[in-house]
Every structure is written in structure tokens, then in C-alpha cells.
Design brief:
alpha/beta, ten-stranded mixed β-sheet, globular, disordered C terminus, transmembrane helix, metal ion binding, transmembrane
């Protein structure tokens, strides 16, 4: 019975065929021997099946990995377009032109389409820039009428990140009251594709200005990079021996000037002077001027909230001279968590002192109480790192700032906002104070730029998060 028992064990382990094994026990050793042979074939077949199955799985995964690289791009593009009303898709969709590659809506490049840049030499670019700045053409003025003193002027500083600019324009197109505003696009990089995009804006008045002292137009001389400039990390002693430009004046950290960084500060100061003092359409304008950048994104009610903040300033905060609408996604704890923490903090404070002594951190309520949490404002000294995005001020504030031009231009830092902070602390009779809206109306969507280079510069996820934040800000429940 040992062999029979062995047969039973083998059949049971290989196939689980206990009933079949029991039926064959009375047939003798010959049948059991043949069953053993059958098991060998069964085992061999099973092994072959497993090998084929694994091979098919490997081939399938390999096929997926080598699939059309445009499929992921197309999915991403579709996701972006789904966030935008169909009538505004024209601002997101590049027009093909002699295409060999494809630039996606989120900044990625596919294998089948792309844009060939116009090839203009520096002389052509300078001539075109001079013509734009001389003509001061205001697009759509015949449709929307002249600029009024209570209209908002929106100044957008642009370099070459057209992908982000497309999304900013889409957000502006959806803003309430935008038809009464003036968009001033201030460029420090001349590009016909960007010009075509800007000139396609049809929902308000538009004017373009071009910073005439850019790196693009002065690549081998100041304010660009002169061949005799001192290298950034050259020691002062070596610079003196070399007699390179500015050898006597490294910065506070021992570094020499880098044109690509300093251009942003130069451009900011030039465009503010250009808007307040030189442009025919704005040089007598006394209303608010909002400063944005190409990688910002605005909420639908940002103009409405801005005007309410302006009214509140006139009535309740005479010393407020800057309005701030923006914040950074990575540093602002939006709505849910912040709301809970504020409630817990209030409870903790009330356990220590009486309720009448508790001063709310957000002092003014500029909108009806229906959306109480996200529509309050704070009064605070202006801090460059916190209140530099979506900031707005009027001519009166500008006159105070421009009176401290030396403090701005000679301050040893290439950031315009830090230089403005220096003015506030060391020159202004009345320091800059900001009214800051708690529920931000301007968002930063740029993942890549002058200071940051990443492998993935897609804007899809960031824009989706911004839209979710704005939606939550309107629908959230109120803490009583």
C-alpha cells in the first residue's frame, strides 16, 4: 500500500483530484504507474503554460512602456481643457506652424508638434520694440471705451514662459468686471508667438510695453553680460588683479553681478515708471494699479474684492497704502486646517483671558458675513516675502516710493521686493502697510522660472489645486 499511498499523495498535491484517486485504487499498480506518467505530462504542461503566461505579461508591460509618448501629453492637455470654458480654449491652444514637435498646454513637449521661433536679429528686435513703445497702441479701446479713473490697471511682467501666461489670461478672462480694466503687458523678451497671444485678448483693453534694456537686446554689454564682467564666484583679490568690471564692488556675500537675476529688478522699476509717468493712457490715472507676473492666476472675484478693500481702506484704514491679494500655495494652509487651528487658538485664549480681551487676528470684514472666513482682511506692515504677489497701490503711494529711488536702485539686492522693503524701512516717512485678504485672490502657479528649474514643469496639478481652493473658499461652512 506504500505505492498506492504515494500515488494518492502525488495526485492530490498536483491536481487536488482526491475523488479520482480514490476511484483508481482498486485498479492495481499498472494503472497507478500510468497515472504517474500522466502527472509528468500534466506538470510539464503546467510549466509551459506558466512560461507562456509570464512572457505575455512581460511583452504587455513592455508594449505599454513603449507606447506613443503623446498619449500622456494628450491626457494632460485634455485635463487642462476640461477645466476651462470652451470659448476660452483659443487662449490655451497653440496654433501649429511648420510643426515637427508638439508643445503641450502644460509646458511639456511631444514628438509630433512644436513651434519654430521666428529668427529675428537683435537690430530687428530693437527696432520693433522701439516702434511698440512709441506707438502705444491700445487694443480694443474702440470696443470698451476710454480708461476711467476708477478702472483697475493690471500690469503683468512677462519674460518667456508662454504656458503660464496662457493660463493667467484664461483666469483674467473669467474675472468679473474685467471689461472695464486695462491690461498692460510688460515684456523683457521679444517673441512673436507671445505677441500674437497677447494681441488675441478680446475681453478688455490691452497695451504692450517693452523693457528696452533687456539681456535679449544687450547680450554682450551692460545690463546684459559683458565679456569683461567679473565671474560670480571670483575672489575680490583675483578680480582686482584681473581688472574685470566692477572688481571693487562684490555684493555682501562676495559675489559679482549676474545679469539674468538683476534684470527682474530693473524691469520692475522701469515698468512702474512707464505706467505712472509715461504712458499716455495711464500717466494721469489715479486709481489702483495691480502688479502681476506671468505665472500668476486670479480668482473670478479678484477685482470685486479689490474694490471692496479699497473702500474699506478709505473708511477705516487711512495708513494702508498697499493692498495684497496673493499668497503661495506651498506656504499657505488653506481654509480647512487653518480654520480649525484658529478656532482652537481662540478657545485656548479664552481659557486664559476673558472673551472681551481677545483681539481677532483678522480685523476687517469687507464682504457680507455669508462667506465670513475667506473674506476678511488683515492690517499688517508690508513684508516683502509675504505681500509681494497680487499687490496693488495708487499714484499717491507711487509718488512716495519714487521719491526714494536712490534707496531702491542702490540697495545691494537683485530682488525688487526686498529693495521696496528697504525703502519702507529706511526712507519713507510713512512705512508701507498692507491690507491683506485672508482668502487669496491671486495664486502662484509657476513651478519653473529664473530661480527654479525642475524636471517636471507641468501646470496641470497646480491649476487643479488652485481651482479646488477657490471652490472650497466659496462653499465652506462658517465657524460661529
Amino acid at each position: 500500500m506504500e505505492s498506492v499511498s504515494g500515488a494518492l499523495q502525488t495526485i492530490s498535491m498536483d491536481g487536488g483530484l482526491v475523488e479520482l484517486a480514490c476511484n483508481t485504487m482498486s485498479s492495481g499498480r499498472g494503472l497507478i504507474g500510468r497515472r504517474r506518467g500522466g502527472n509528468t505530462w500534466l506538470r510539464t504542461g503546467l510549466i509551459i503554460f506558466l512560461i507562456i503566461f509570464i512572457s505575455l505579461q512581460i511583452n504587455f508591460l513592455s508594449f505599454r512602456g513603449s507606447s506613443d509618448p503623446n498619449s500622456e501629453l494628450n491626457d494632460s492637455n485634455a485635463a487642462i481643457l476640461s477645466m476651462v470654458p470652451a470659448v476660452l480654449h483659443k487662449f490655451l491652444t497653440p496654433r501649429p506652424r511648420n510643426t515637427t514637435n508638439n508643445v503641450g498646454l502644460n509646458g511639456t513637449t511631444g514628438a509630433n508638434t512644436a513651434y519654430n521661433k521666428w529668427t529675428l536679429n537683435i537690430s530687428d528686435i530693437k527696432r520693433n520694440i522701439a516702434q511698440y513703445n512709441l506707438q502705444q497702441t491700445v487694443y480694443n479701446e474702440d470696443i470698451f471705451g476710454p480708461l476711467q479713473n476708477d478702472s483697475v490697471v493690471i500690469v503683468i511682467q512677462i519674460h518667456d514662459r508662454i504656458t503660464y501666461l496662457r493660463h493667467l489670461i484664461v483666469s483674467l478672462a473669467q474675472a468679473r468686471g474685467i471689461s472695464q480694466a486695462l491690461l498692460v503687458f510688460s515684456h523683457d523678451y521679444y517673441d512673436e508667438e507671445i505677441n500674437n497671444l497677447v494681441q488675441s485678448v478680446d475681453f478688455c483693453k490691452v497695451i504692450q510695453i517693452f523693457y528696452p534694456y533687456s539681456i535679449q537686446t544687450h547680450p554682450h554689454e551692460f545690463p546684459g553680460e559683458d565679456p569683461n564682467d567679473c565671474p560670480r564666484d571670483l575672489k575680490r583679490e583675483q578680480a582686482l588683479i584681473k581688472k574685470c568690471n566692477n572688481a571693487l564692488y562684490p555684493d555682501l556675500y562676495g559675489h559679482y553681478r549676474e545679469a539674468k537675476f538683476t534684470q527682474t529688478k530693473h524691469h520692475w522699476w522701469w515698468k512702474a515708471n512707464r505706467v505712472f509717468n509715461q504712458l499716455e493712457i495711464t500717466r494721469t490715472h489715479s486709481g489702483l494699479v495691480v502688479f502681476l507676473e506671468e505665472d500668476h492666476y486670479v480668482a473670478e472675484d479678484f477685482i470685486y474684492v479689490l474694490k471692496l478693500m479699497e473702500k474699506t481702506c478709505k473708511e477705516s484704514c487711512k495708513h494702508c497704502n498697499i493692498l495684497s491679494l496673493g499668497t503661495y500655495l506651498k506656504t499657505f494652509n488653506y481654509y480647512g486646517d487653518a480654520k480649525k487651528k484658529e478656532a482652537l487658538r481662540a478657545i485656548k485664549q479664552q481659557s486664559i483671558i476673558s472673551a472681551g480681551q481677545v483681539h481677532p487676528s483678522w480685523t476687517f470684514q469687507v464682504l457680507p458675513s455669508l462667506y465670513q472666513h475667506s473674506q476678511k482682511v488683515e492690517i499688517t506692515p508690508w513684508i516683502s516675502s509675504k505681500h509681494n504677489m497680487g499687490m496693488a497701490f495708487n499714484r499717491s503711494t507711487w509718488m512716495d516710493i519714487v521719491g526714494c529711488a536712490d534707496y531702491f536702485c542702490k540697495y545691494d539686492d537683485y530682488n525688487w521686493d526686498w529693495s521696496l522693503q528697504h525703502i519702507s524701512q529706511n526712507c519713507l516717512k510713512h512705512k508701507l502697510h498692507a491690507m491683506v485678504v485672508r482668502g487669496p485672490r491671486v495664486f502662484h502657479i509657476g513651478e519653473c522660472g529664473v530661480h527654479h528649474k525642475k524636471n517636471n514643469c507641468e501646470s496641470t496639478a497646480v491649476i487643479s489645486k488652485v481651482q479646488q481652493v477657490m471652490e472650497d473658499g466659496v462653499t465652506e461652512e462658517i465657524i460661529s
